[in-house]
Amino acid sequence: MSFMHRLFGGSDAPPAAAPAASPPAAPAPSTPQGDTATVRRIVGQLEALPSDRARLLAGAAYVVSRAANADMAITADEVALMEQMLVERLGISEAEAVIVVEIARQQAFMFGSTEDYLVTREFKRVSTPEQRLGVMRACFQVAAANDEISSPESAVLNQIATELDIEPADFDAVRSEHREQLSVVRAARAVQAG
Q1: Cα dihedral angle (66, 109, 101, 182), rounded to 10 degrees?
Q2: What is the pTM assigned to this prediction?
Q3: pLDDT at 68
Q4: Cβ atoms of residues 57 and 98 within 8 Å
Q5: N or C: which end of the chain has fewer CB within 10 A?
Q6: CA angle 66, 5, 121 (to 5 degrees)
Q7: Across all residues in the chain, what is the average pLDDT?
Q8: Residues 101-147 pLDDT 10s
Q9: What is the DSSP secondary-structure string of the chain?
């Protein structure tokens, strides 16, 4: 079973395997041979993960990538935040996080709207309520990476919360942590200020 199949499910068809070509763009050793060996070693480490852990990791990365891509662009700051969150919250190495985020980012870019619900549903199935809330919080942090959460980003965050069955009170609490970054709040304040 291939690495992509284990992480994202589905077939081993060439379209699903295409994103694997992207990881060499991550920070790498100085020689092309080192690039290949490094990527292979990391992929080997990820393949060694239990299937449920791999699905949890892939689902979390994809859902957060979905939030980052809500404005149709994923910035370097958003990528760095996603990697950091995977390292801190799921306990993987930085090198593994780079690969997983890049694969998830490419999958979200290539298959976005057709896969969003399916991958989010799978993540919901393999995660705990606490993990889902943690990913929701990560989605808000990534959406706010440029210090503003736009209306399209807010709509995607609402959709993700619905698909993950985040309790409304929990969602409101997370949203309130970022209220000053919501573009709609800023616009309302600008109107009130005159």
Answers
A1: -30
A2: 0.75
A3: 92
A4: no
A5: C
A6: 40
A7: 80
A8: 998 888 887 877 788 999 999 999 999 999 999 999 999 999 999 99
A9: --HHHHHH-S---HHHHGGGGSGGGSS--SSHHHHHHHHHHHHHHHHTS-HHHHHHHHHHHHHHHHHHGGGS---HHHHHHHHHHHHHHH---HHHHHHHHHHHHHHHHHHHHHHHHHHHHHHHHHS-HHHHHHHHHHHHHHHTTTS-B-HHHHHHHHHHHHHTT--HHHHHHHHHHTGGGBHHHHHHHHHHH-
- By the 8 A CB rule, do 131 and 57 touch? no
Compute φ and ψ for 28, nearest 5 degrees: -140, 170
Sign of the four-CA dihedral 169, 174, 176, 182: negative
Residue appearing with tokens 């791999």: 54
Cα separation of 103 and 120, whole Å? 16
Contact 170/178 with Cβ under 8 angstroms?
no
Length of the chain: 194
CA distance 88 to 83: 9
Question: What does the domain layout of the chain look like in residue ranges?
Answer: 15-193
Structure tokens at 182: 């919501």
Is the model's pLDDT at 78 over the cut of 70? yes
